[in-house]
């Protein structure tokens, strides 16, 4: 598999441009593309929405094609501008101000995007919460950032542990029959008579706080700022190859970084319409959506590609996907099998991109203008310096596996971990490097190869799970004395969540108990965090300072798969 090469394809930029850009490119050269470069007035919502209407003449251009079940809606940039301004008015009416935090906890829907951008118009900081989160996960995240308001739906509302969130004052509910004591999002919008002006903020003003799981402790609130737009605009153009006339579908949920950065911010900065498909969908729905909206650029994940593969050739043959001209992947290793399928059935390669919540933008990618080496995540984006370093932060030569590191200081980098400066500093413990937590090596040509996570964070079907959160949830159950959780390699999902547990006296292991524990994590924390496998142990290995020894767990899942 390694060593197979797919030649470069014609695109707007060629390899020479890339090589030159690698040497000369400076992110500062992107800045004149923004209106604030001339006016000095910054707000990403102005750049992504208002400016498309006021300066680019895109008032009537569709920004969002939304489809979920029977529901189908189109939002132009003009309508987005009006509705986000109205939601800003609503927030203002309830006293929200620049810097306050607003949680958004709802399934994909136009109201989600309007709430996000409406809040950002006011300088309010958005806290996106994935719809699978349950009470405990919500309490940790909303409590940590002290959110004063939340937008949710009648279905998800009961999961909010209101009595444990003292800072929370208002709950806006999108849907029919809003619960007593909450505010009806649509009614509030309809009552607005006057909209507030755009709040100008600094480039370093927080835009959103994304909670991401780390190896230890609770999820950390990664703080991203308005300046993220610099990295997003240029990667949207050079990695995603977005151009006028494109229809873009990034299939990630806006509860995760991909669904925020590339789900709407990046394409809208370029005035490109996006497709959002809500609800659950099967292999056929994927193809139908690509065909129906004549999607030309598609950003998805290996898990999704595999789902379509399982639908068979017959499925693909029923849809006209001739508009599709650029496909990208993220989140988990892009396997050769998936690449071969795409080459054979879609007539084009898939471009892998490596990055993470902390980086805010694509970092190491494959580009149309240069050969793809199958199995490689590609080469650093111009202006980004990546390296493989040892545990002391010393650079390693090609071929050696070590920590995948990025030279600190790119435009979309996180600026803080909310309430936790020590955790933020940990990423930068080997200056000048940002330590990603991933293992990688690099070949003689500078291509990087992802080798899994080093720190125990689990990646299951592209969703990030913190073992410590699962462990403490399991330990709340009366049957469990101690738990150790690790990712176990899995063909379909990349990794699955595996839990080693020590039982309390009086409990015996059974399939029923396994099901009960799974349900306990599912309903307490989040469905995707529930262990798919359990193993009972006499003890859990601990480090000298009493924490779960992740290295030993890793060995258990890798080498002792006989259970
Ligand atoms: C982790 C970050 C922003 C990306 C979506 C997930 C894994 C990311 C790749 C890739 C193999 C990848 C890494 C990384 N990952 N891209 N192309 N190939 N693995 O963001 O939830 O912050 O997770 O996803 O392990 O550390 P995230």
TrEMBL record:
Class of enzymatic activity (EC top level): ligase
Keyword Nucleotide-binding: yes
GO MF, one example: acetate-CoA ligase activity
A cellular component annotation (GO) from this entry: cytosol
Record key words, sorted: Acetylation, ATP-binding, Ligase, Nucleotide-binding
Pfam families: AMP-binding, AMP-binding_C
Domain AMP-dependent synthetase/ligase: 60-407
Span of domain AMP-binding enzyme C-terminal: 469-546
Gene Ontology process terms (BP): acetyl-CoA biosynthetic process
E.C. number: 6.2.1.1
InterPro entries documented for this protein: AMP-bd_C, AMP-bd_C_sf, AMP-dep_synth/lig_dom, ANL_N_sf
Ligase is among the record's keywords: yes
Protein name in the entry: acetate--CoA ligase
Organism: Desulfofundulus kuznetsovii (strain DSM 6115 / VKM B-1805 / 17)
